[in-house]
């Protein structure tokens, strides 16, 4: 196609050095040792930038997964990583256009620290910072922060809402032109351009101002990934972009319609929130080669790893049940309600065994998997994009670096040929990449 | 001298883009706009590395100074800066040998976050991270963290002691060789090499383990700067290196003797703690040129800036007193006791006016100022170093970048000619630069 339509996809990619698939690290092409080696991340980030991705994204948690034995934990790599804000700050030096986003929890942080860290990243990167707002919901995290159990869902979301509003208020502590630095008069900043927040709420009392100048984007981009009712409400009210796990086109469309409706209901333009379903691609020169890559990884999932991860997601210790028996009825675990229901519905629908269910979970953690040639993967993305299911995608390479290389070298050129994706960065900031309005510039 | 003595100085430098002197930003040679410009920091860090400094250091606070009016605050630059861990992470990419240290408060942080951030910096920099452990003691900071007032001195130090011990415990969460990443067996880490902290204390309950592999130094270097009794006790028990403000050689010697005695009293080798008094150098081609630089800066201190900073340090609003009258008797401010006494003793001794006292304070914030040619500055450092007052120095350039350039281009070669300072880095890590033992390597 030579006719570029007006509407173009937005693409994010989640960089986990061991890949998104639980057994990705065991793939013959996977390069190991990358968890703590900046050079590995440098190469990945530069590959993503070569692919003109809007943003690269680092996931995070503040503790190990909780329902696993040490033996189970030791079978999979997602146990430990570099603190993402430090890593993104370092990556800001070796990239120049791609957006840089990371998860930070509202449950076990203070808004003043979070506001400062992302404003700093936004300065360092000249306007490329994004914050993925999450709540923490494992006891494993709670126990690292003076608690026995994580707070309940309502309370976490009530705290999250206030947290985001405090952070946004702190980001507006200074007008854009507050720092005049006049050597002659000895005036460093204009005192009329300092804005003291004086926040007092249910969860936080934060006076401000933030001790950092307003950053290039004003407000770094807010990402969210909630699919619970509370999560959706928060996203509709505050998010600029949303990651979502959807297994099927219908699920993705339903989510898209529902969230855009809520966004409009709150008086925001539907285009103010970009919806990016996660896609785990297996790309081959032939469909058969791609299928073989996928099958090989499924077989490499160690049962301990599989059971451990399934237990964590479903909120129940699954090692008590026969591996090749049907998925049993389970007690509802309040903290895991939405994810648990998703998985049990799936097991019922497809009549899965425990082994098959963990195979499913370890294969993309609830995200949609596409297996095929570059053209077939592009077809799927185009179909979802043009069916009202997505404004773009969060690409989850199953193993690295080859999984990202394949996408950048083969799928992205195909999307570009079809006029569905940029061939060059047009803007400078992450907001510009995502086609988002800038937040109101402060008085000037 | 061609005979290099065995003992060599250690040199740190505090990088504040506007300089250490309150009026440093107004110096004709000062380059402005650097607070948020990574390129300015990159150049400064690379200059310090060219000078073979052991470590560059970033100060920090989590709020504005408290006892100043906005009008006063607006007259000096130390109000806002990049979050230092993010900045150091970025600097780790553009430097290769110099140590990278920053302040993080034990009062308004959680040990899990702090342990992770410094372990991350240690990984990113291949063993060059240092943490300057402080307690926060202004209400301006407290009010950004859900409190009206900062906790009292005893409580802050009791929390700081426990905080440091939790962080050190978390740094030992994994043996050095815990991550085996065996693709064949599907074993990612050796479960016998994970160490769960299970800390329960007066201030913190932290289960662990930290979700990051043990870092190259095992324990990043601990800096401290306390001069109160509690501060000294904490430093003697846990610090690897100590920054200290001493006006005179006698004060520096007294502090040195006292702290080394306490260190020995706790069963540690006196050489296990490096003592680095702060030195603000004014360097000229002639003594007269240096004196002229110093005088020019004193005259550039705006009275509002001077009064504001003096009030903050002394814990009392000083704008109520006549500028050119004697420094009056003041009520004891518990939270500022040690700094207040230092300043009042000085005012009595030298019969200072309020204006003269703020001139003194803004000129190096209680640190020793040396004014002269490069040889004269080197003489002073050598004299202190050889008189049992210092293991090295923390160099505080009054304005930047020229103040650092002068030291690196003129004083360091002089120290090197005298055999007092390295001509090349010999080790790879900050611990090695400082000649410190590595902490016990974990089981292997």
UniProtKB/TrEMBL annotation, chains A, B:
Molecular functions (GO terms): monooxygenase activity; oxidoreductase activity, acting on paired donors, with incorporation or reduction of molecular oxygen
InterPro entries found in the cross-reference section: Diverse_substr_monoxygenases, Luciferase-like_dom, Luciferase-like_sf, NTA_MOA
Organism in which the protein naturally occurs: Caballeronia cordobensis (Burkholderia cordobensis)
Alphabetically ordered keywords of this record: Flavoprotein, FMN, Monooxygenase, Oxidoreductase
SUPFAM superfamilies xrefs: Bacterial luciferase-like
Cited PANTHER family: ALKANESULFONATE MONOOXYGENASE-RELATED, C2H2 FINGER DOMAIN TRANSCRIPTION FACTOR (EUROFUNG)-RELATED
Pfam family, one: Bac_luciferase
CDD domains on file: Nitrilotriacetate_monoxgenase (cd01095)
Similarity comment: Belongs to the NtaA/SnaA/DszA monooxygenase family.
Protein name, per record: Monooxygenase
Domain named Luciferase-like: residues: 36-389
Binding site for FMN: 60, 103, 153, 157, 227-228
């Amino acid at each position: 196609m030579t006719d570029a339509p007006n509407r173009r996809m937005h693409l994010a990619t989640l960089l986990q050095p061991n890949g998104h698939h639980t057994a990705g690290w065991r793939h013959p092409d996977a390069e190991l040792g990358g968890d703590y080696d900046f050079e590995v991340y440098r190469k990945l980030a530069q590959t993503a930038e070569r692919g003109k991705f809007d943003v690269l994204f680092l996931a995070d948690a503040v503790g190990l997964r909780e329902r696993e034995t040490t033996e189970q934990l030791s079978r999979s790599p997602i146990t430990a990583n570099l603190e993402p804000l430090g890593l993104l700050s370092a990556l800001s030096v070796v990239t120049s256009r791609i957006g840089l986003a990371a998860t930070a929890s509202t449950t076990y942080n203070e808004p003043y620290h979070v506001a400062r860290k992302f404003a700093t990243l936004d300065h360092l990167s000249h306007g490329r910072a994004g914050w993925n707002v999450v709540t923490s919901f494992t006891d494993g995290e709670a126990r690292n922060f003076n608690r026995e159990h994580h707070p309940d869902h309502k309370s976490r979301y009530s705290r999250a809402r206030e947290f985001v509003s405090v952070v946004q208020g702190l980001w507006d502590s200074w007008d854009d032109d507050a720092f005049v630095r006049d050597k002659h008069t000895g005036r460093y900043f204009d005192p009329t351009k300092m804005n003291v927040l004086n926040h007092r709420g249910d969860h936080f009392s934060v006076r401000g101002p933030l001790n950092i100048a307003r950053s290039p984007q004003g407000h770094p981009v807010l990402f969210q990934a909630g699919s619970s009712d509370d999560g959706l409400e928060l996203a509709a009210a505050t998010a600029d972009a949303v990651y979502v796990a959807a297994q099927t086109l219908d699920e993705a469309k339903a989510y898209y319609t529902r969230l855009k409706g809520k966004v409009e209901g709150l008086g925001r333009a539907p285009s103010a929130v970009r919806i990016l379903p996660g896609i785990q691609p297996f790309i081959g020169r032939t469909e058969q080669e791609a299928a073989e890559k996928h099958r090989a990884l499924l077989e490499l999932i160690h049962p301990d790893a599989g059971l451990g991860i399934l237990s964590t997601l479903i909120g129940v210790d699954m090692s008590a049940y026969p591996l090749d028996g049907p998925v049993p009825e389970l007690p509802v675990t309040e903290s895991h309600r939405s994810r648990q229901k998703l998985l049990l519905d799936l097991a019922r629908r497809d009549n899965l065994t425990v082994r098959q269910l963990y195979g499913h979970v370890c294969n993309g953690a609830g995200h949609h998997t596409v297996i095929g040639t570059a053209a077939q993967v592009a077809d799927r993305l185009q179909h979802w994009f043009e069916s009202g299911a997505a404004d773009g995608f969060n690409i989850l390479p199953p193993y690295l670096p080859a999984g990202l290389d394949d996408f950048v070298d083969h799928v992205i050129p195909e999307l570009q040929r079809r006029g569905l994706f940029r061939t060059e960065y047009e803007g400078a900031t992450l907001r510009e990449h995502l086609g988002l309005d800038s937040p109101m510039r402060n008085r000037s």
